[in-house]
Design brief:
This protein has two domains: 2-45 and 100-212, Ribosomal protein L4/L1 (Ribosomal Protein L4, Chain: A, 3-Layer(aba) Sandwich), CATH 3.40.1370.10; 49-97, no CATH class. Strand 1 and strand 2 form a beta hairpin. Helix content is 33%, strand content 15%. The protein is built from seven helices and six strands.
């Protein structure tokens, strides 16, 4: 088992917690993590770029001039790709699929590797509990200020992982720069890697070990 220090909301150490090696004790595999990141980002990609073919461009129903006798090249439609305002050949189409597949086991293992790396690099903060009576930014900012003595680079980004719905914490964190909230049952590699630190209440750690290590 791996042990991690637990802090309270005042930034003081209150004890230690045993963590599962299967979740928080894996060695990093850069290729697997990269594959998981690419798969997630490709699935979120929306193909906005879309060009029209000659059949989709409006107009061009009438033959521009007669077939013979004008001395000009024959044309059947002004919507031809060689005309200005005509259709586009080999342009980007919104029907293209960018999604890349990755199986569940690989995706889960990449997530564990990211969590393990955060713990190993002392970029994971475990709290005894995270409760705010009022949904005010200054309340959440005070908690982070208390933790800043131990974790100096909190201003470089923080992901708060909540065990369940907590509207007060979510609303109190919204206006804090480079701070994001996630549910423990919907973690993903991209969001965890986008910020330097992860803050988890003790209950979130227990939920991650229970839900993801099946």
């Amino acid at each position: 088992m791996i042990t991690a220090i637990i802090h309270n909301q005042e930034g003081k150490e209150t004890g230690k917690m045993n963590l599962s090696e299967a979740v928080f004790g894996l060695k990093a595999n850069a290729d697997l993590i990269k594959q998981a990141v690419k798969a997630q980002m490709s699935q979120a990609r929306i193909p906005y770029a879309h060009t029209k073919t000659r059949g989709e461009v409006r107009g061009g129903g009438k033959k521009p001039w007669r077939q013979k006798g004008t001395g000009r090249a024959r044309h059947g439609s002004t919507r031809s790709p060689i005309w200005v305002g005509g259709g586009v050949v080999f342009g980007p189409r919104k029907e293209k699929k960018f999604a890349q597949k990755i199986n569940k086991q690989m995706k889960r293992k990449a997530l564990f590797m990211v969590l393990s790396g955060k713990l190993r690099d002392s970029e994971m903060i475990i709290l005894e509990d995270l409760k705010i009576k009022e949904a005010k930014t200054k309340k959440m900012a005070l908690i982070l200020k208390n933790l800043q003595s131990k974790f100096k680079d909190l201003n470089k980004g923080l992901v708060i992982v909540l065990p369940g719905k907590n509207e007060n914490v979510v609303r109190a964190s919204k206006n804090l720069p480079k701070t994001e909230t996630l549910r423990a049952d919907s973690l993903n590699v991209v969001d965890l890697l986008s910020k330097k630190y992860i803050l988890l209440p003790k209950e979130s750690v227990e939920m991650i070990e229970k839900n993801y290590s099946k």
